[in-house]
Amino acid sequence: KLHTPTNLLLLSLAVSDFCVGLLMSFQIILTDGCWFLGDVLCTLYCALDYITTSASVGTMVLISVDRYVAICDPLHYHTKVTMRRANVCTCLCWACSILYNGVLLKDNLKQPGRYNSCSGECVVVLSYMMGVVDLIFTFIGPVSVIIVLYGRVFVVALSQARAIHSHTAAITLQGSETAHTKRSELKAARTLGIVIIAFLTCLCPFYCSSLVDQNSLFVVTSVPLELWLFYCNSCLNPVIYAFCYPWFMKSVKLILTLKIFDSD
């Protein structure tokens, strides 16, 4: 029952965010501010970091598209969103992330360590133009898509809830019905608000600070607070996109308690 297009996208998000956490273990080790693994591994580390974070954001956009189709066009959802299409979109998301960040970091990849000012430093530099491009494709574009689609989902979900409540109003007390409608509206607003606010809160400081500087520096040996906040987005995604679903939590419980092996 877990083999659905939605869960495939959640799997992609889980993989990307897990990779971000795995890469951050190297960052935590470097508390003394020195990189001892060489310039090639420094560039590779930074490239993988860019790729996984971009794939995470791209997958979030795909999830918003999936939810949009499921809510706004439910009758055609199973014909429009299939496992095959979900597989293709997921693979394209990762492939585009690799290609995009390869172009973004081409100067750093050609000559690893070219921007290091001293031994033991790990620095990747993007030009101001590349920083603007990254701002558009990794922040402004995804934020716009997510806000528009989730806004549409919110409106349609409210209209559907009100339509259902109007049909059941004849056998339900008006007071309790109104209260139930309000609870549904508040729950929908809260969920969508968490998605958008978390995304903006985590990514806004990083891109605002990168626009202030003429060059966008990714300094592994001295990571600023806004970059740590950027990484926190990958920490929050599992909570927002997975653990808010009761059916997902039930499935996880069945797996962890080994009840999945029961005959029934």
From TrEMBL:
Subcellular location: Cell membrane
Domain G-protein coupled receptors family 1 profile, first and last residues per copy: 1-241
Keywords: Cell membrane, G-protein coupled receptor, Membrane, Receptor, Transducer, Transmembrane, Transmembrane helix
Pfam families according to UniProt: 7tm_1
Entry's Gene Ontology cellular component terms: plasma membrane
Gene Ontology MF terms: trace-amine receptor activity
SUPFAM superfamilies associated with the record: Family A G protein-coupled receptor-like (SSF81321)
Key word Cell membrane present: yes
Residues annotated as transmembrane: 7-30, 36-65, 86-105, 125-150, 188-208, 228-248
Primary location: membrane
InterPro entries recorded: GPCR_Rhodpsn, GPCR_Rhodpsn_7TM, TAAR
Record membrane topology: Multi-pass membrane protein
Keyword set includes Nucleotide-binding: no
Family affiliation: Belongs to the G-protein coupled receptor 1 family.
Protein name: G-protein coupled receptors family 1 profile domain-containing protein
